[in-house]
Each structure stands twice: as structure tokens, then as C-alpha cells.
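Predict structure. Input: Inner-membrane translocator, 343 residues.
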Amino acid sequence: MDAILLQILNGLDKGSAYALIALGLTLIFGTLGVVNFAHGALFMIGSFCSVTLSKLFSLSFETVDPTKLDFLGNPSKVTTPYVQAWFGPELGAAIIDWSVPLAILLAIPVMLIVGYVMERGLIKHFYKRAHADQILVTFGLAIVLQEIVKYFFGANPISAPAPEVFRGSLDFGPFFGLEANKVIYPYWRLVYFFFSAGIIAAVFAFLRFTTFGMVVRAGMADRETVGLLGIDIDKRFTVMFGIAAAVAGLAGVMYAPILSPNYQMGMDFLVLSFVVVVVGGMGSLPGAVLAGFLLGILQSFASMNEVKSVIPGIDQIIIYLVAIIILLTRPRGLMGRKGVMEE
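Output follows.
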């Protein structure tokens, strides 16, 4: 029971990342009809927003402290971060410690701008082109973006630690009547799951309960009719592209303490997330979220040693096997809509 519970928890944080990226992919496809293979790069850029802010907060200067002497008896040099000099030692240290959550404030405008530039500068020219053309151009854009990140940040992963208060682990065993110290789970992974759930709920609430969201949903269902009503649906869809980029970026920001950011991480998550979108059903937002958590949990169970000893390497292919089975039985995916990607 403890192993099952632990694998479910492991699957939830993986599923949270898959669901958030897949949600953004589905938003773009559902509104603009574009298969965006650069979406994983947006996740990667979000992660490096955490790295960037962490490095900015760590910038420091040296001063000579006459009260402290080195081994030669000379006054020692003391390194002080600028943040601590400006805001005081305690508040400055807290700001440095909470750099990853604070990176959300940086990531939102950055991702909105990146999304707007991508859509207006490149992707709008491929709306009426074949999906193969869209895949090729956005895949090429993803490679360009990751090479730019590689140039500025290097090829090696860069750590972005979680706040100190969340660096421990929670013992889940006693909550479920199990033996203590059997189900230990990191606090930050729980934070990531609840953060992801909040973002997903906010996106669905925005689409369902706001006038802007209702118009967007109507445009997704019948773009021409909405346009005939005098509504500039193209501008609203551009905003949705920016929102989808922000969702992917926020997913990357908060995932940075779980997986140290590197320039290839976007491509790794993109392939899996696109499979999630297909399994959930192209154009289906609930399907993308459902499939994300489902496949995340299945991948977690497949990574158990007991399973891998019976079927070696199953953890690497389980998502694709499930995708094949589902698409053979339900060609539109779990919650796919009729007519989407069927031409």
C-alpha cells in the first residue's frame, strides 16, 4: 500500500507538468488551429526565468570589514548581496531564498511578450498552411530558442533551489494509517501539484465565467459566426496565445527546483505532452488535463523496480503504448471532438 501511494504521489507531480503544458498546447490548437511544436521551449524559458532571477538576487559586492581578520592579520573582505544591502539582512535573505516563487512575477510579463511576438511575428503566417508546415516551422523555432538559451546559460543544468521552508519532506504514512517513514514525499512537489491545480482551475474559470472567455469558446466552436457579429476574434485569439505561453512558462518556473533547468528540457517535455494532447483528444481542454494526470501516474508505476524487472525499459515506452491502445480503440482520444484533425 505504501508503494502504491508513493507512486501515485510521484505521478501527480509529473502529471501536473504534462497537464499544464498540454493545456497550453490545446488552447493554441483549439483557438488558432496551430500545432505548436515550440511550446516546450516556452516551458524551458519559464524555468530559466527562475534561474535568471536567482542569479540577479545573488549579485553581490565586496567590502572590507576591519573587525574581521584573515590568517595574515589583514582585514577580511566580506561579500554582501545587493538585495541585502538595499532591503536589510533579514528581508534581503528572505528575497533570495524565495527567488523561485518570486520569479512568477518576472515570468508572466516575459511569457506574454514572448507569446505575442511568436504569434504576430511568425505563427500568424501559417494559420492557413498545412499542419505539417506548422510543425516544421514551430519545431525549427524551438531549436532556435533552445540554442539561444544554451548560448547565454551554457549546456549544463543550473540549479534553482526551492525556499528553505519547502526543502524537507512530509511523512504521509500516518495520515493513511500506514507505518511512519514509509511514504516520504518532498514538500515542493506537493506545492507544485497544488500550484498546477490552481492554474488549471483559473484557466477553466476564465474561459467559463468571463465574457472574454465565453467569446473565445464561441470562436473555438464557430469562428466565422462570431466574426460576423462584429467581434475581432483574431485579437482575442492572440491574447489566448499569450495566456497559453504564460501557462507553459509558469509550469517551468515552479518546476525548476524539481528538475534543474537545461536547454534541452523543453524538447523532452514537449514530445510527452504532445502525446498527452493526442490521447486526451485534439482540441479538448478537459481531455488534455485528464490525460496528463493519467499518463503521469502510469509512467510513475512503470518506473517501479518490480515492474521494470519483469518488463525492462517499460517506463520509457509506457506512455506511447497507452497512446497506441487508446487511439486504436478511440481514434479521437479520450475526449476528442468530431472533425478535429480528421480532414
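The first strand starts at residue 60 and ends at 69.
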